[in-house]
Write a structure and sequence with these properties.
Length: 394
């Protein structure tokens, strides 16, 4: 039986003037800063991408890199953008409390080269979500994503994350408030269910209720979450993947954009799903972070772009050298970037030397020298490997 239509409940928002503090511009970074305090007129619902989802006419969500706490920082996202022009990038989850009461520049400022980039919010209070979403739009983000999938105890105690799957009406109120406050897409990342609330009936009610509030894009982690008894790591591994349940959402919700997350490790797997199954996009997390060169194949493999962003790892390192030189001059610790690039040479000759050199302590102002030394060691190891191959084939 069809779920009853929800009545609209407009949310009164706090004054927008407080959303526009004077934001210091960080040295050696291109920072998105807030727009003027007076909000412009807001267009209402945006439509699903109006063309077929294929490499010729791809959805903006065709390939996404998942939000990952402590990993998808601004420097990490800028590095990933060097590898792919088309991948959609996401911030770490930022709580509404951090934005309302903390240092907004610290939580929201980013480098313009990262775009398109989405801000993921954690929260459940509609008014707070609206203020945080508006702040994100003012900083230049291309999308606001609401976290309804994180199962950690800390997130549950704050009444956000996966536990919100038990409260679809509350999520819908939050989405409606954010949609009222911003003109950019408001999306939701969720699970198939939580604890005993993991039936298709409950999942469809959740999607339908939130969609009626204006959300047109759902990123679905194809597992349920156990809120008690499993750690966040176990919740990424123990509950079985159920892709078929995500595919089944297409028949029930043909007008929504559906992105599948969970268990994907290669571009071949992603391409096969996009070709053969009724989904609009895929989202990869740890596989893209730990083996970032995977991203270098995204533009050509999934978007049909015959002019990839880079063709050799050394091209990426040249860009990284320039960025770290800027950081050295600005006294920004090189570790903020270098910790994200340790996997760049995974599976290649010299990969261990690369990781070992960049894992050593780096003195302030010497980040570029350390990176150049790591590149020299890798280049030498590759030359030795090439000579060995030639001698074996002679």
């Amino acid at each position: 039986m069809a779920a009853p239509q929800r009545a609209a409940h407009p949310v009164k928002l706090a004054g927008f003037a407080e959303l526009n503090p004077k934001v210091p511009i960080a040295v050696a970074r291109t920072i998105r800063t807030p727009a003027p305090a007076t909000p412009p007129p807001r267009p209402k619902p945006y439509a699903r991408h109006p063309v077929p989802n294929s490499e010729n006419y791809p959805s903006p969500w065709r390939f996404c890199v998942a939000p990952m706490l402590d990993w998808t920082t601004s420097e990490c996202r800028a590095f990933h953008r060097m590898l792919s022009r088309h991948a959609r990038l996401y911030t770490e989850m930022v709580t509404t409390g951090a934005i309302l009461h903390g240092d907004r520049d610290r939580h929201l400022a980013f480098q313009s080269v990262e775009q398109p980039v989405a801000l993921q919010l954690g929260g459940s209070d509609p008014a707070a979500l609206a203020i945080a979403a508006r702040a994100g739009e003012d900083y230049g983000y291309d999308e606001i994503n609401l976290n309804c999938g994180c199962p950690s105890d800390r997130v549950q105690n704050g009444r956000f994350g996966a536990c919100l799957m038990a409260e679809p009406d509350r999520v819908a109120d939050g989405v409606a408030a954010m949609r009222e406050a911003v003109s950019i897409p408001v999306t939701v990342k969720c699970r198939l269910g939580i604890d005993e609330l993991d039936s298709d009936e409950h999942l469809h009610r959740f999607i339908r209720t939130v969609a009626e509030a204006g959300c047109r894009v759902f990123i679905v982690h194809a597992r349920k979450a156990w809120l008690q008894g499993l750690s966040p790591k176990q919740n990424r591994e123990v509950p079985p993947l159920q892709y078929a349940r995500v595919f089944a959402l297409r028949a029930a919700f043909p007008d929504l954009t559906l992105v599948l997350n969970g268990g994907l490790n290669t571009l071949d797997e992603a391409a096969a799903l996009l070709r053969d199954e009724p989904i609009d996009g895929v989202m990869l997390g740890r596989s893209a972070y730990q083996d970032p060169w995977l991203l270098a194949g995204v533009d050509q493999t999934l978007f049909g772009d015959l002019t990839p962003a880079v063709t050799q790892r050394a091209e990426v390192v040249e860009q990284l050298l320039a960025r770290i030189a800027e950081m050295d001059r600005a006294d920004i610790p090189a570790r903020h970037l270098i910790r994200h690039i340790l996997g760049l040479y995974n599976g290649q000759p010299g990969a261990k030397l690369w990781r070992r050199r960049l894992s050593q302590p780096i003195s302030p102002g010497h980040g570029r020298a350390a990176l150049a030394d790591a590149l020299a060691q890798v280049t030498h190891a590759q030359a030795i490997n090439d000579e060995r191959i030639q001698s074996l084939s002679a």
